[in-house]
Amino acid sequence: MLPELRVLYFEDLEVGLSETLSKVIASSDVVGFAEITGDRNPIHLSEHFAARTPFGTRIAHGLYTAGLISAVLGTRLPGPGAVYISQTLNFRAPVRIGDTVEVTVEVAELVPERRRARLKCTCSVAGEIVLDGEALVKVPTKAEADPLAVRTGKA
Asked: CB of 117 within 8 A of CB of 73?
């Protein structure tokens, strides 16, 4: 199921504003990510291979988990129209098939003159942080998104 869209403009943002998304990691998600990216590392696809690793079972691609941050940025905070500038990622623990990943994005800083938002990004499983980092995004203003509505007072 895709996240519901929520549109926020730069003027709507404030430090501390946050949004969370939950996703159960399915085997089909991991297989699909491998197909799209070409990363067919058997630690993600073969239970037999993964059983002999320190993880003991298949794990999701780290960048698949990171991609869930993109889902929040593009659909909820700030939402449609936001443009990624950069992202840092710290992989802290594996995500296994069947895990529920909680992705939280929080506004850490606003740069009004450039319409940028620095966002704290955290992914956790059962309360344990599995990935964290920061994103920098460009966020449209209401005037940029709909100049006519702003001029007519309908924004």
From this structure: no
